[in-house]
Amino acid sequence: MSAPLDRRWAAYESVLGALKTVRRVVDGSRNPVANTVFELRDREEILGALEIAREVVDDLFVLSFFAAFEDAMKAHLEMVIRTFDSHPTEPPELARNLSIHLAETVEGWRMDRIPSLFAPRVSEEGVSKVGDVRVFRHEVAHGKLPASSVIPKQAYLILADFLRKAKS
Q1: Which of 23, 115, 126, 153 is geometrically suited to a Cys-Cys bond with 122, CB 3.0 to 4.6 A?
Q2: Residue 2: its pLDDT value, please?
Q3: What DSSP element (H or E) covers 72?
């Protein structure tokens, strides 16, 4: 269930590698910035712009990781809910209708509540860590200065671990 996160993590590592490569080229090449937005900037301006880009990329990948996590969680819940229709009810169609209704509403469920549905399989600490990533994602997505920092590797590990435990 963590496959969408794995794909994004690989992309993040590629972007970091590219930024490191650019930084190294700027430090040693004759004119590595020709025909780029960096062409008229000096070395310090370029390095400063690369650091800002790195911070933005970090935030965007945390947003991406959480979006993939949210999609995976909701898809998993929809799948679980769809199994409800096999339970005997009176009238017989109630279980099927309820299953369909609940599965259709999962998309609107709040992500501040969904992780706790997996307790105790996922520890309270695991649920709390996912909450920290969610708050960071929310603050970044809404242009607020985050109260705390969540680095991409930390977000990836927290969310992937949660998905593994939730599905097992």
Answers
A1: 126
A2: 62
A3: helix 43-82
